[in-house]
Predict the 3D structure of the following.
Amino acid sequence: MRNNSTCELDPSWWNREKPKALKKSAGGFEKALAGYVKIQPSLRNGVDTNVKKSVDAVLGAIAGSAKDVISEAKALQKTCSDKAEKKDLSNTIDVMGKPLQKALDAVRSEVEDLVSASDDEEEEAGAFGGPSAHGDYIRKLAPKLKKRTYNFALGLKSNDPSEMRFLFHLKKGGRSLGAQLKSKAGSKKFTFGTAGTQAPIGPDGEDESKARTLLLTLEGRKIPGLAKRVKVMLKSMKVASFSKVKIVVDGLVEESGEEDDDTLDTLDLSAIPDEAMEESSGGGTAPDPEGKGPVWDRVVELQRQALKAIVIPESVPLMAAHRLKAAHALIATKIDKATTTEDLKKTSADIETLKETIQQAIKRTVKSEANFEGLKKQIAKMIAELPRDLPPLKRVPTEIAAANDKQKAGQEDAGRTQLLGIISTVQKAGDEFQTQVTKRLTMLVELSDPDGSTDDEKAKLKTARDKITELLTGKDPSWAKLVEASKAIKKLQTLHAKIHRSAAERAAMAHFNAALGGDVGVDNASMATQEGTVTTKQQAFDTARQALETAQALPESTPQEQAARATAIATAAAQLQLAQAERDQALERLEVMRDKRALTDALQAGPLGSDAPKGFSDAATAQLIEAFTKDRKLAEAAMASALMAKDPDAVAANVGALIDQMNGGFAAADGRKLPGGAAAARSYAEDLLRMGGQMGGDYFEDAQAYIAAGHHLTADPVGDGAITDTKERDRKRSAFMADALMAADGTIDPNSAAAQAAFGHLRFSPGTIEHQTPVLNEHIAKRLAMLNDGANRERAQELLNDTSAPTNPVALSLLRKALGKGDADPITDEEAKQVLLGSLLTPVGQNEVGSCFATAGVRRQSETDPLAMMEKLKEIATTGFYTPANGDDALPAITSIRDGDDQLIRALEYSVATAGARQANSIMRRNLAVTFDDGVEQYKEALGHEGTWDAFLEMIGKSSWPRERANIVAAIGAGFTFTYDSGSDSGAAADGSSHSGRFVLVRVTSGAEIRTRAAYVAAITDISQTALGLDPASEKGQAIANLCASDAFINAVAQRNPAGELTYKPWELPGGGFTTTADNALLGGNPSGHQMMAKDTTSQSEGARSRALLEGMLGMFDGRDDSMVSFDTQGIHTFNGLPNHPSLDVLKGDTPAERQANIQTHLIDAGTALRDTALSVPRTQSAYDAFFEAFAEKIKGKGWAARARTKLGTDVPANRPTTGMKPKDVLDHAMATADDALDLIEADLGNADWNKAKLVGWLRGVFKGKLAEDLTHPQFVIADTNWGTGENHTYFVIAPDPVTGEAKMWKRTDPPGRLSEMDEKWLDTQWRAVE
Amino acid sequence: MMPDDLPPMIYSLSAEGTPIVVVGTDEVGSQTEILQSHPDLVTTEQASALAKVVNHFAREFRYEVIEDPAAYEDAYRSQVAAEDADAEFQQGKPRLRDFGIPDFTAILAPHFDGATLVYYARDRYLGIPYRASVAASGDTVGTPSYTPMALSEIR
């Protein structure tokens, strides 16, 4: 017998294959096989239990004689010396074993089916009887349906469900069954498919016996309301076997018939397409109305094949084999019952897991049993079944050769181990190939024809799908074809998304036009006309209502009056009813027009247009368009959210479901709805969309779980409903989260139920997300992730364990304020820990008061090493002191902090700032003294005493120069201090920024600030005279005064560089603040500034400076991976650069030339194109409208703007552009239109703060920012400003100015992505990285 | 030499910028050196002088030894009263109100507590008091440590 000969239950096969050496048993086996052949005709004539018994007997005879064959073959093997003969016997033994058994089992199974089918046919009579008999028929079939999937047909005779008839069969096709129903039960129409059941899933998996859902998978035409109709039918026939009916079409549950009422819509049988009536001889391809069915079937079939191909080797231990078989069976059931692509994905994964498990079992068992040659054959066999070009197979020949070498070298065990490894590799390669094929086929199912696609589009999609299907499932599968299919799928996805988008647009417009009775225009004039109609109808309604009231007031004293009154009332009521209907109709029409207008605007001038600079993917656009047909307002909210979203696709994908939930009142799983009715539900939906856009990730999925659990019904779970201050709200929410994060015993667990519930409230509670804190939430999410790391959690826990209630009054004061306690209230250890943990969960943002030098560092530490910050916060919380990292003396923590702020973080920021300033002061004080000493050395020369100190001393009446010199230096060192002036031209630094921030010398005794040379000369003269004990009015005192005022002396103390420029002038100290000393205080080390861009001394343009800054920054950080680096713009601000922000990736390059070229392409050229390209007409109009909307908002309600508003009311619509314009032209046109109104404002107000020039500047800035928000993409984020709260955060970005085309610096606040121009001073100054 | 005979001292910097103390006409560049030449500094009577020497070599001009606690308290309270109670914190412009008020009764003139020299020093920049202590016995004086005093918030 050949190796692996396929076992056939046929004597001719046996005679071909049987070993010649076999004598005694060969005839018996042949006879047994002949018995099987003999019984075949009876099988074809139908199988009953008697026939089945005969078959069992024949199969038993075959099995018995096979044992005889095996026995004889084994006996012969022992005496046989011929190698080929021995092999022949060995192969026979193999085939008589498991392969024969499988063949016999297959026959038994088939006979079982035939018997069952025969039984079904016996019962078929009931299928064609009356309702009672049919009920019996279904009840008998129900238990079988719970075990097997049947073909079925469902016939309809009339609109009456009790006249519907089922016919089930295991073998016969649905069409054939339908034909039977038509001829025997008088059904006029029918549909067909497969019927099964769906079981509830319990702790031990699905329990078929409890299956109560009848699952009808249609292959024939759909019948409206079928699920409900079948349910009513079953009820009328008193069939209680099923409580639910689900209709599955193309793998998706289309109807679930779960309604409680039995009311049915009238079914028009004539409306059911004729195709359903066509009979078929069976087989053939099921109807494929949407191009989904065949592919779905193919995927299912492939999964079945894949599962079937999985064989559990006999070598696997018995118990493991049982488990694997059970898993195998379970997967098979799941495949049968799969109704969605998700189901198929899961079963695909299950198959892979099963394969892996079997492989592991094989590895454990085969190692000790397989011989070297056997393994090699196994490898050869496995490879023969796989595509030859699978990448992992390339190594196999080499590895086999290596295994051979080992065997030859006497290392057979090592060789076997290597072969086992190869088997594993080959198996995995094959599995992986199959997985990839299945995965792609599953993707094809998802790429079915979108609703509303045209025949041409469907044809294109079908062609693409067919090509891919052929590549994946055609003859001669190969890796190359798989790769080709992958590329083709990518193209198909793009094509599909485009078609989906255009189909959605057409479908939406068709939807609106159907409601409007035609393609009604929705321009301003049309909208105004309809609004006028509504007004007219409303007036008519009011008049009719008045008429009714008048009629009701008529006298009714006499019967005649009563009759007249009744008639008048009836007439008026009828008129009122008519008027109401007409008004409602007009209003409804207006609403539809508004819906259409909103979508039109979004398509033409908004982000849904194909020309939108910041548009969405085609798929997301299609989903948003579809949302407009369901709920315009929520669609607009989704669009706005998606524009700023981290994952716009997620927003778009979820808006549809969210609209449905909103319409359902956001009911929890138990049916409880959100209080407050439709308005509250709408508001909640909008808030979820906004927050979801900001949070990204699995936000919407998590929200579903939160809502289903009913958590959203808890009122004000955080307890911040009454808080109005933003920072206080942040603090409250952080504290709430901290409280939940820490258990009663002080341990922290980010995965505890309490922590997860609390974070759920922060993200999803209606009351919480009404006042959204996305930045805070994201910060908390990062902290929770950080604490999920074991080492981090351990360290944080140590810090918490080491935290107890303080005794230091400063620490007590800070904690009391944090907890909202009174001045004398006690603090517990637990409260101290909670405050500390709350601060860890609070994002660091700069307060309105200036603290940028320290805040930048603290924020950076918070983002990059939060536990180091926590350690410092812990010191403050427990001791009231802050110890600088540079080894300097500790200082008491600052307590002058606003009540609503996070007390510990602010205390840290301010303490770091103070420590940095103190260090700077110390350095400057010493510098001043030493420099002054240099000046003192000039005394002799300045006084003309021929270089002898003695003469000088004699002149001033002193004898010990070292002593006098020391006296003067000491007086200088102790006589001055320094204060920081954040900037005179911008007043108090509202945002930590200023124009000329610098230290100023201060005389200690008077507190006077030294800002001029004269003031400095006066101060040092006074100090010198005092130190030397000279009367200022004396000749000697005057000599000192002259000395101090001399150029020679001043030159010495002021210091000059080689170019002769003064570099250190005590009365005009250099600007720049104390970034380095603050960083040194916070982090230690020896930070110093490194210039990225020099101060502008040649009046470069804003564009050139922007470019220089980007080049400098990217050059400095080339090849580095810093996430945050301290930046300072000397004298203005200290913040954190983001040299590796993802938006900068396109600008990076390995060489300066590459970076310059990228900047040229993506920034400079993009800006030029933006400037020089005319906007479309709708976008031009949109920009023009935005200009005047901002203007109207600015002067809204102002009495002095009344004339201007009237003027604008006339001029703005009259001058609305009708052609496309470039951005600058739009601005100029809008400015020209606004000019008269601006003149009127200036004339009527007469206020210097609101003059025309300022308003023009303001309008220009707002216009540019708005236009840039819409048009500039990408925007290059260069730095984190420190400015922000839990609600939003602000970044510095470089992006083109749409009006000038030049690159410029903006600040962008996220959310909502609002851009504001930055003053050019920011780019004019020096930029440094401090590290 | 009796304490009264100690020459006046000047706490200054050398031409190279290192701390020096000029004793009489002698420029002394280290604490050790000055203690060798003037061992009588380590006496109760000379606690203030010793505190100033130790303070200068340890921190140069950063702190000023508080020799008259009552005067310091008066000045402190006057400054607090002069500061704007509603002003916000501003970096580089320290105010006493940013910190709080110390327990003035704890502030004493330089003195010995056993073999430890204890003195209070005013941070010249911040104005707040520190408690400094250093082991001092015989002709050996260590390096002082400076601890900020506990303050109470000014409401």
